[in-house]
């Protein structure tokens, strides 16, 4: 049976080029002090689609999102959002342009109620009717939040807090949503529920998404395009369907084992994208 062609590595291909990218990151370098966390990263998010970034802890995934949303400034490179260069803008200005960020660890306001957290997401809006309509949509997406509307957010379960963090970002009416490890610390059942809602938000609300995730299987099943990040560099870029066929992705990210009685130990194996 003929093997499918391997995904094209980033050094060979550069990065995927979208016909209508809502986000275009070009050759960014971001530092923490003297330490380079992201080195020459380029990626694009096509309008209306979901793009996943895979990588281990410390690969630089969160740093990329913080650079895009203005929390960190890149030393080199550029970030363009919806045709406008944003890499030197303040985070609040970037939010007002239509870019939402759901951070790692959720970072809700624990002493505010669920409703107050949601309204904080709409702080830049002055269309009361639109805010009320979006609040109703949130109740449809996450009925549990409606039942907890007047409860302190810090008393919610981890899964409910993740739902609240996504909903708070949604209340800003984002064109693009940055999602940082939405499955972190959640049970498999809640992970499936969260990713189901992510797909609905993309399909029904038309929100483009850049998804950073360690759960490679869920990310590749949810997104249309994917990048693999290692030690601050993009090492592979392709459609998620083709990435799923890669032997390296299957072994190092999906937990598959090579057939045979005695395979090489994982830490001895060399990845082909290097």
Detail the topology: elements first, then pairings:
Blueprint: H1 10-13, E1 21-32, E2 35-46, E3 50-54, H2 61-68, E4 76-81, E5 84-85, H3 91-97, E6 99-102, H4 114-121, H5 128-141, H6 143-147, H7 158-170, E7 176-180, H8 188-205, E8 208-213, H9 216-222, E9 225-230, E10 233-239, H10 240-245, H11 247-252
Parallel strand pairs: 3-8, 3-9, 6-7, 7-8
Antiparallel strand pairs: 1-2, 1-4, 4-5, 9-10
Helix pairs in contact: 4-7
Walk me through this protein's architecture.
- By secondary structure, the chain is α/β, with parallel strands linked by helices.
- The protein has a domain of 180 residues: Rossmann fold (3-Layer(aba) Sandwich).
- Helices cover 35% and strands 24% of the residues.
- It has a six-stranded mixed sheet with strand order 6-7-8-3-9-10, with helices on both faces.
- β4 and β5 form a beta hairpin.
- α4 packs parallel to α7.
